[in-house]
Amino acid sequence: MKVIVGIILAAALIGGIWFLTADREPTPESAAQGSSFLTGSNQEPALDAREQTAVTVQIDDFFYSTSRLTVKSGTKVTWQNVGSIRHDVTPAEDSPKVISKSDLLGSGETYEFTFTEPGEYRYFCTPHPTQMRAIVEVVP
């Protein structure tokens, strides 16, 4: 009997630890809150680039160089893969504004998009959707 109780307690403990630490996708409700979209991802420093007309976001192995980028309308953003693993830039389904999807980028390859409409653009890496998510906020 003690063995069965011990097994049940161990299973409950393991389940509780998994629940608290599991890397889960945000729900549409939590993603709608903006920063919640980034929960669980490798969050890099925010970058305010409103004074620049062109910005490069580096893609390294399992992270974008910024998880929150602010630019003015008309800014061209270039994503450049500087890592050894292939990554892409894919619009999130619940993104208020949508960018076009890139191909998988190998080391040294780039993808460009010019933001013409103000709003929030959420994107992620298809092969690494829980680790690599980011937001571009476009202001007038």
**In CATH terms, what is the architecture?**
Sandwich
Distance between the termini: 68 Å
Record the strand order, biggest sheet. 1-4-9-8-6
Radius of gyration: 19 Å
Percent range of helical residues = 10-25%
The DSSP helix count reads 2
Low-confidence stretches are: 15-34
Number of strands: 9
Total count of domains? 1
Task: Give the SSE order as H and E letters.
Answer: HHEEEEEEEEE
CATH class: Mainly Beta
CATH homologous superfamily placement: Cupredoxins -  blue copper proteins
Q: Would you give the CATH topology?
A: Immunoglobulin-like
| Mean pLDDT, all residues | 82
Largest sheet, in brief, is: 5 strands, mixed
Structural class assignment: alpha/beta
Shape: globular
Strand content: 25-35%
Task: Describe the protein's architecture and organization.
This protein has 140 residues and is an alpha/beta fold. It has 2 helices and 9 strands. It has a 5-stranded mixed beta sheet with strand order 1-4-9-8-6, with no helix packed on it. A 4-stranded mixed beta sheet has the order 3-2-5-7, with no helix packed on it. The chain is globular. It starts with a helix and ends with a strand.
